[in-house]
Structure formats: structure tokens, C-alpha cells
Amino acid sequence: MTVASIPNWFSRGVADLFPADAAETALQNKPLRVKLGIDPTGSTIHLGHSILFRKLRAFQDAGHTAILIIGDFTARIGDPSGKSATRVQLSIEKVEENSNTYLQQLGQGQDPNLSLLDFDTPGRLEVRRNSEWLTDLNLPKVIELLALSTVGQMLAKEEFANRYENGTAISLHEFLYPLLQGYDSVAIKADLELGGTDQKFNVAMGRDLQRHFGLKPQLGLLLPILPGLDGVQKMSKSLGNTVGLTEDPLSMYSKLEKVPDAVVEEYLTLLTNLDLAALPNNPRERQKAMALEITRLRHGPEAAAAAQADAANLVAGAAGNGAAAAEVPEVSLGAVNFPAKAFYLLSAVGICSSSSDARRQIIGGGVKLDGEKLSDPNQEFQSSAELEGKVLQLGKKIFRRLKPL
């Protein structure tokens, strides 16, 4: 982006803007209708997703109208972006259930100060479901949309090209996805669409369709894909490298405090509004400032400060003092049948996904009980009395205090 007069709230973290020369003019005219489409194909939102909602909130705070499109129709097709195979089609009921969960996580009915989006200020948010205009789209209109793109254009999309080259099946309904998402921009008359860098094809399709239907083409503003906690691969629930929006303050802070140095600046830029030049130059201090600020934005200043203190207490607890003082999220021993072996305990209280996963974690040296490493997955606990009040730790980021039955 080269236009010097574009405000920082607009340009911060932006990976691509097209056409770039239209941005300044657009911001000086009437308030923009800013589109962000989300397909509720899952039930949880993580920090990687949140960077788009944060940018949408910045537009709201600057006086523009956010158009949040719940892709309840397109979710039944599934966005092929980033996928190496056809996505499983979801039921209408499941999509609606996920939609309601998403809105709650974005702040609907929650404390406005901790909301990702402004649900309260009149005129700042429209929540639309694309089933409004796509359910009754007739066959002549579908044919018209299909005629606006070629097979060659579709195969130019990286995911389709790779699958075609590898002989992996591409279902015809998947070609409809970018067309239908683009038609969303026509239906709500978007002036600007937000998306990740993997969405450029879809956003550009919206511009093409708007032009075809006699509308002014929208601007496209793309943000980077956030690296996960490993600092290498994108943040993804399937990779186990996420921080969920609903995670408790201690878990959130503890995870963020340990992200690799290489991605701290990216986290600061995309997940906070902190002035990077005003932060200490010390990498460790910048990392802690990042973790504290992100936790504050989600849970408030008091909870964030307590999480930071508790994380320090837990580190001290590993040396034999301090763990008892930490306010650690509790987990009940009610589901555990005693006597219980260590691997079963971790699975029963939900810290590990399965007994086999628990065995691997213990053998790998990643599990501690009140700061003492558990090394034998078959270590047996005779009763809950042996465990009540103790802190079970998995890796460096997950802590749970065991509470009575």
C-alpha cells in the first residue's frame, strides 16, 4: 500500500489491497458497506480467525457499516480454499447450530467491551444469512452465473489445480462456491470485502459479478494467515496449534507467552493495537506484553493480570513453591474410576484426547503433577484424596487443578 494518507487502522497488517489506488477515494466518500463472509463449518473460533473480525471492528469504529454474512447456504457446499479434497457437506441443522455459536463468540449478547464486533451501535452491523438470496436462486440465474467463468479460470485456482494435477476428484458443485460467494457481494452491494490471502480468487470473483450486474466493483482487502503456536504452520484446530476465543485466561496467556520469537511481531501487529515502537526492545518483554494484551482484550484487564501472575506462580511451582497460590482452572475428578492409572486419569479428566494420547504424552515427558514429572503411564492412584487440589500440567501451556468428586 503506497498511499500515505490512508489511516493506520486501515493499513495495519494488510497483506494486499486491490485496486490500491481506489482506497483513499473510497474512504473519503460515504460510509462503506464492508463485507466479511464466514461459513459456520465448525463450532469454535480461534485467534487466527479473529484477525478478520478485528479489522471489521476497526471499520465499524471508523463509522462504516459491517456486513457479516453467515454462509449458511455456502457452508453446505464448503469452501475449497486450502483443501486437498472435497469437503463434507453439512446438514442445515448443524450449520444453524454452528452459526449461533459463532455469533455468541463474536460478542452477541456479551459484554460490549470484550466483544470482537460492535453489536450495539445502531447502523454499524448487519448480520445476514446468504440463504436469504441463494435458496431460491432459479436455474436460469445459476446458468447465468456459470457462464461468467470458465473451467480454465477455475483450474487456475491453486487448490483446484493441485487436485486436478494429482488426479484427486473435483466435484462440480465445488465450482459453484466462488460464484455463490461472489454473488453475496452483489446481493448486499458491498463496497469492500475482507478476506485472508487465500481468499483472493473469491474476492476477485465478487468484483467480476458486481461489474456484470451493473454495480461498482468492491475493493478487496486481504490479511495474512496467522501462524499457529508452533510458529510454522497456519493456526488450525486440526493441527492442535490454536488459541480459542473461549479459552480461560490462564490457558490463553500461558500459550501466548510461549510462542516462538519469530512470530511475536506478527501476533502483535495482527492481534493487538499496541504501538510496536513504544514496546521494550527485549524479545521476552515484547512476548509477555503481547500475551497480556491479547488476554486483556478477550477477558479484561483484571483477569489478564491475574493470568500473568498465575503463570509466574506455576513456573515457580515447578521448583516446589508457588503452584498452590495460582488460580488455575479446575477440572472435576468425578469421571474418574479409582484406582486409576495415570494414562487413564489424563483421558478421563479431558486433558488428553484419548488413553493412547495420554500414554504418549507421559512417556514423552510432557506431563507433571504439582511440578513433579510423571514418567510411568501405569502409575496408579488409589483414591481421589491423593489428587485433590493438585495441579496437572500438560506441556508448558495447559494447567488444571484437580477438584473433589
Task: Please describe what this structure looks like.
The chain has 405 residues and is of the alpha/beta class. Helices cover 41% and strands 13% of the residues. It has 16 helices and 13 strands. The strands form three sheets. It has a six-stranded mixed sheet, sandwiched between helices. A five-stranded mixed sheet has the order 7-13-12-9-10, covered by helices on one side. A two-stranded antiparallel sheet has the order 8-11. Helix 4 links the parallel strand 3 (65-70) and strand 4. The N and C termini lie far apart (58 Å). The model is unreliable at 318-322 (pLDDT under 50).
Structural class: alpha/beta
Compute the number of strand runs.
13
Give the overall average pLDDT: 87
Q: Report the sheet with the most strands, covering strand number, pairing sense and barrel closure.
A: 6 strands, mixed
The fraction of residues in strands falls at 5-15%
**Rg over alpha carbons:** 24 Å
Distinct helical segment count: 16
From the spread of the alpha carbons, the general shape counts as globular
Strand and helix order? HEHEHEHEHHHHHEHEHHHHEEHHEEEEE
Q: Which range best describes the helical content: under 10%, 10-25%, 25-40%, 40-55%, 55-70% or over 70%? A: 40-55%
| Strand line-up of the largest beta sheet | 1-6-5-2-3-4
Distance between the termini: 58 Å
Uncertain regions spanning at least 5 consecutive residues: 318-322
